[in-house]
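Troubleshooting: if your tokenizer reports a length mismatch, compare your output against this known-good record of 657 residues.
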Amino acid sequence: MNASLFCRFTALILLTCLPNHLSGQEPSNRREPVEFDRTPTVWSWELPKEVVDETAIFDASFSSDGQLVAIGDSLGRIMIRRLDNIEPLHTLNDEHNVPIRHVRFINNDRLLATLDLDGKLVIWNVDEGSKLTELTADGKLQALAVGKDTTQLVGLSDQPALCRWSVNPNSEIMAGESVPLDQPYRLLSASENSDVLMLAGDNDWQQRRWPSLDVHAKGSSNGPNISALRASPSGNRFALGRQDGEVLVYDVRSGKQEFRWRKHPTAVTCLTFSQSGSTLLSGCLRDRIRMWDLATGEHVNDRDVGLPLVTVLQLSKDDQKLCVAGMGHDINVFGVQVPSERFIPAIRRPKASNDKAVFAVRFLLGTDEIAVVPKFGTMERLDLDAMLVSRCTEIVPGNDRLKLAAISPDGMLTAHAYQSGNVRVIDSVQSKVVWEFKHPPSADAIAFSPDSKQLAIAGGHGSTIQLRNLDDGSLLWSDITAGQSLRGICFATDGQSVFTGGHKLDAENRHLGVLTHWSADNGNEISKAQSKDIYASVAISPHATRCVTGGVSGRICVFDQDLQRLRMFDVGGRGGIHRLKLIDERRLLVATYKGSLLMVDVETGQELARFEPLPENRQMPFRSIDYHPKNNLIVAAGGYDNRETMRVYYLDETVKK
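Known-good structure output:
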């Protein structure tokens, strides 16, 4: 799309993007909508090719039962669709000739109200797809809101005034009184399950209550112009978005500001609360939406939704579907991830003895213990049954800051890479430094060989890869991968090969993921593969038939033993991919930077299971994962100091194969 057209639509979107409203009762016993399917259901208008780039979806609304969605676009067209049918139920093109501001289901979904940029308000019969009537008001209507019983409709006009209509049991529209306002307002939002009605202008906001529409509170956001407004379903909070990208959340009763975030790079265009009111989603004039936890005030997730900019965020009544739309003619409906049948809770939640973040874990096969390397000064072994520390060995890190760690397969050695570039190999039984190597400026990946006799180190400027003999500490070989930044390294299960993952910039300064297969014997490059990503982690299957990479984009690439790419797919979870582990030739464990852990089938891309994360909504990374094949146990660790850091899970029969 050319720049002038983009600017024109940006101006229209700031005028027309107002919050949408849903009806429904407050839910219970369900997960908050902070993660969504990577691949949405996509609907498109059937348009001539030459006009596709000139369209944008300006509003959408789910019916109260979540079975219908109504959409309004920049060409003045209305579409009503069933979520279970690819064909639209109705396409309404005859009444509006300018962009649609709002679409609202009313009267228990039997009617649809549509408002365009010229202030024209039309009421439609949803079942028949026919026009019922056109409503007029004093002045030009700018916004619509629906009362909690869906039979009350209120419009905001430029008089300035609030205009109210009611719907009787025969679906007849009855005009009500007009309530004058003390100053102009542009935005309007009604709580779905209470009597709260919010108004906002350039900087001021006002709270009114149904049915009298009397003023209960007012205030100012004291900053750049307000661009989005949303009242929570219960009416206890409301959120404002501003043109500088800030999102603000207020308590309705006191009018006090609770949270203030600046994450969006451009004007906030849309806001939506979950039905519980515990999560807020926000979108802006870019392609990324964000999720906020209203219990802690933390930013818990964000994701690219594949649109040049976002104008519509709409959750269904049950919070299980998210409608996202904006520039272009596509309407994306994402499903909320993690249905209960795929969710695996932790059976143990151990902590490091010093209550610090954990950098490495490993099951010690043949024992009932887990080896643990937490931050600062200890190496530990945890009894699997009691989850108590059976042995704790102190080490002295000096002034170095621990960056990453690894545990040898036999559990006898640990490797610690520090910010200074020092890499220390420590005897975990005798608690002494066996070897110390330099890897300037610092290592970004380390891995032990399957026989625990070699250590591979990668990273730093260049980047450099080196292989060390742990019998005598000698350098077996090293290589400088000019122009690359190495982030992941692992040995093949036979110890004869080493695989590295990283990235480099192409001629157009775009990131290219680079996967390289090296001979562990002499450091010769055997093969190489590239794709558009940043490879942060590499994993090899037990029989070396599959090599898998994962990166910051959340995308998995699957290769065969010759590094021929077989398939590529996106995975869910919060944040980019941090660690990977293939527990067999098909099942892949994926740990993310923000604390998600899931299992996928590398042959189909299907998510098999989702595991209980580190504390919900804390964005705590998983840094290390391991699998115990005999006991079907998984351990994952990471976290931050003074927080929960480890989880142990059991794979039951439904996910063992």
